[in-house]
């Protein structure tokens, strides 16, 4: 069997979708190593793969320290200024450590399976050691296409978009992407920079598997042939998604609650949304389970909310949603996919540029309400809770449709097929 390295970091939604894939490959007999920040290692203790440090602490606790920046720039200019944080501040200065940690595992590996943003740096180790790279893409809405707006910017039409796409791949965008730092490190490693750019470096020249069902985000006709939609890859959570006794007792004690969770980014960047959502739910006499993301926020909220709500830093979301009636969230990939699979309607209050795309898409599908302005959140909550509006029925119907695609199983099949083709 093969040695497969899985590589990701940053927010929980950037990491959790790769867990069931890594576990499935390990159970199939492969030697699987998940290179990921050490903050995540205890969560994966029961999984059948081995964890290795990514070399830095680019994970939720560190990202919480940058909440003010995220709140200010998360959605402006198509989210472009967030790359100054992700790449310029949290990646470029640590490229030696990141590269050394990954290379230690990739050097004798048969395949590297990477998050797209992590692949910008991670691909260097794969190139040096001639290891096949496959990207598991969480963000098809960022794929460059003349048929779509770039990121969350307005759509100018196909002709103008073609010119913008050429610009995105040019050196004009180097300051935004911190490309100079990547190129300098590539030269240091003896790798070529001919034709290299960040937008293309987030993808693999060999194969790219979008961990999103085509029914949710249909493929565009000008996407590359090596880009395949495989479906969502949900993780049940630590310990197989077990809910502890306090949670189950709360769920058993009344009607199905509404989950309020803002993920890693929005919880610290826009915590006022918790209060707005809970006030709206109180007005409708609804119970809530609040996932505050970290201990400090959870302690603060728990002191201020009524006994009809349960506040915790983290609860496995997949099993919780199966016992809930709706969810208020930021539109992060992991939470969004679990809500869609569970068939519960969403109120989406985005904090980051990619989350705007999920808010827009759920509104198009009629499975959720997109909150464009903060003052609209109470109305959105009332809208999805009103049975006459049909959000629950549409969410359940869409869940049945996308649940027919087993994204985890298909990803494993594709990776094993690629292994066979590259080893022959």
TrEMBL record:
Any one GO MF annotation of this record: hexosyltransferase activity
SUPFAM superfamilies the UniProt entry points to: UDP-Glycosyltransferase/glycogen phosphorylase
Pfam families: EryCIII-like_C (PF06722)
Classification via CDD domains: GT1_Gtf-like
Positions of the Erythromycin biosynthesis protein CIII-like C-terminal domain: 311-401
InterPro entries to which the protein is assigned, alphabetical: EryCIII-like_C, Glycosyltransferase_28, UDP_glucos_trans
Entry protein name: Erythromycin biosynthesis protein CIII-like C-terminal domain-containing protein
Organism in which the protein naturally occurs: Candidatus Neomicrothrix parvicella RN1
Lineage: Bacteria, Bacillati, Actinomycetota, Acidimicrobiia, Acidimicrobiales
């Amino acid at each position: 069997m093969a040695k497969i390295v899985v590589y990701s970091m940053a927010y929980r939604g950037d990491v959790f979708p790769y867990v069931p894939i890594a576990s499935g490959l390990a159970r199939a007999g492969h030697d699987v190593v998940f290179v990921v920040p050490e903050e995540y290692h205890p969560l994966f203790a029961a999984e059948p793969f081995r964890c290795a440090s990514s070399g830095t602490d680019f994970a939720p606790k560190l990202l919480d320290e940058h909440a003010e920046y995220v709140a200010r720039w998360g959605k402006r200019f198509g989210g472009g200024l967030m790359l100054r944080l992700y790449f310029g501040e949290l990646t470029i200065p640590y490229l030696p450590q990141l590269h050394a940690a990954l290379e230690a595992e990739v050097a004798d590996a048969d395949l590297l399976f990477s998050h797209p943003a992590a692949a910008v740096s991670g691909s260097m180790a794969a190139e040096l050691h001639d290891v096949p790279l496959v990207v598991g893409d969480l963000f098809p809405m960022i794929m460059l296409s003349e048929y779509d707006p770039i990121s969350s910017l307005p759509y100018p039409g196909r002709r103008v978009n073609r010119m913008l796409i050429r610009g995105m791949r040019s050196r004009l965008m180097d300051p935004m992407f911190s490309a100079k730092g990547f190129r300098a490190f590539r030269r240091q490693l003896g790798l070529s920079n001919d034709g290299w750019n960040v937008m293309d470096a987030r993808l693999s020249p060999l194969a790219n598997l979008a961990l999103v069902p085509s029914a949710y985000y249909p493929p565009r006709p000008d996407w590359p042939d090596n880009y395949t939609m495989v479906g969502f890859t949900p993780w049940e959570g630590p310990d197989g998604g077990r809910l502890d006794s306090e949670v189950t007792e709360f769920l058993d004690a009344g009607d199905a609650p509404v989950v309020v969770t803002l993920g890693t980014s929005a919880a610290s960047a826009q915590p006022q949304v918790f209060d707005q959502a809970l006030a709206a739910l109180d007005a409708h006499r609804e119970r809530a389970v609040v996932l505050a993301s970290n201990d400090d926020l959870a302690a603060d909220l728990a002191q201020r909310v009524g006994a009809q709500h349960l506040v915790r830093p983290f609860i496995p979301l997949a099993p919780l949603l199966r016992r809930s009636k709706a969810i208020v969230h930021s539109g992060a990939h992991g939470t969004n996919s679990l809500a869609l699979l569970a068939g519960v309607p969403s109120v989406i209050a985005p904090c980051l540029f990619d989350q705007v795309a999920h808010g827009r898409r759920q509104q198009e599908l009629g499975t959720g309400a997109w909150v464009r302005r903060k003052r609209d959140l109470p109305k959105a909550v009332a809208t999805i809770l009103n049975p006459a509006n049909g959000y629950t029925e549409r969410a359940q119907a869409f869940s049945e449709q996308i649940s027919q695609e087993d994204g985890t199983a298909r990803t494993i099949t594709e990776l094993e097929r690629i292994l066979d083709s590259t080893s022959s």
